[in-house]
Amino acid sequence: xxxxxxxxxxxxxxxxxxxxxxxxxxxxxxxxxxxxxxxxxxxxxxxxxxxxxxxxxxxxxxxxxxxxxxxxxxxxxxxxxxxxxxxxxxxxxxxxxxxxxxxxxxxxxxxxxxxxxxxxxxxxxxxxxxxxxxxxxxxxxxxxxxxxxxxxxxxxxxxxxxxxxxxxxxxxxxxxxxxxxxxxxxxxxxxxxxxxxxxxxxxxxxxxxxxxxxxxxxxxxxxxxxxxxxxxxxxxxxxxxxxxxxxxxxxxxxxxxxxxxxxxxxxxxxxxxxxxxxxxxxxxxxxxxxxxxxxxxx
Length: 298
Ligand SMILES: [Zn+2]
Known about the structure:
Layout: H1 11-18, E1 23-25, H2 33-44, H3 46-50, H4 62-71, E2 74-77, H5 89-101, E3 109-111, H6 118-127, E4 132-136, H7 137-140, H8 147-159, E5 163-166, H9 179-188, E6 194-196, H10 204-213, E7 218-220, H11 227-232, H12 237-246, E8 251-252, H13 264-272, H14 278-292
Parallel strand pairs: 1-2, 3-4, 4-5, 5-6, 6-7, 7-8
Helix pairs in contact: 5-6, 6-8
The structure holds zinc ion.
């Protein structure tokens, strides 16, 4: 086993020791500055919400944030963004398309909200080359079974474009988070290449069961297995290790960078310390993502 990194500065050496030229992070958030500031304000205020502070680690301007990502050896990353109200997603999609076009390593991302125009702007985004979508059921406060989204899920399933789906009940549940509701979406759209964010935290078991039923479903490990994640919703290790081995080719690394409550190295170490072997780590940090986006030039 390669020793886990303790600091961000050790990350490039850690990848090299694993035999990787760099990694793919499927859960990075990059958004227009005004929206980013609002998100950070939300997390700053999340102390009372969670009964604990959420110390945003990488609050820097965009060029510093991107430079840091590359310096840590993250060769490709999503730039996820998401709306919290109607009439917002199409504008975000325009921003994201332009941003990705001028940002090496950034996957072209898009998003949606249950609204009349959703199917049209999602189709346009796919035609314009969007490689990954983000659905934030909790922040959006919507029902993913909303009939305005049925065509959206269908389009993503047909095109085979992955959607990072925050559908678990962490950090705060809504009436529409959890495996039962999203299971209905998957039952209607079994080919949907959903990437269940945060391993479905805190409903790990229910989402893993959905993954077993739907081979197109993947998972990201964002926020799981860290001290912060364990304090809130631990995923018992023996159970987690069994599940992560079983679904090994469908587990993807994600960090929530820059709005993460711990350092990047801590998230990497949390995954490394699961002790599932270097081959499993190479798959999770890089190779599994390259099966989703085989034409990535890394
Ligand atoms: Zn996120």
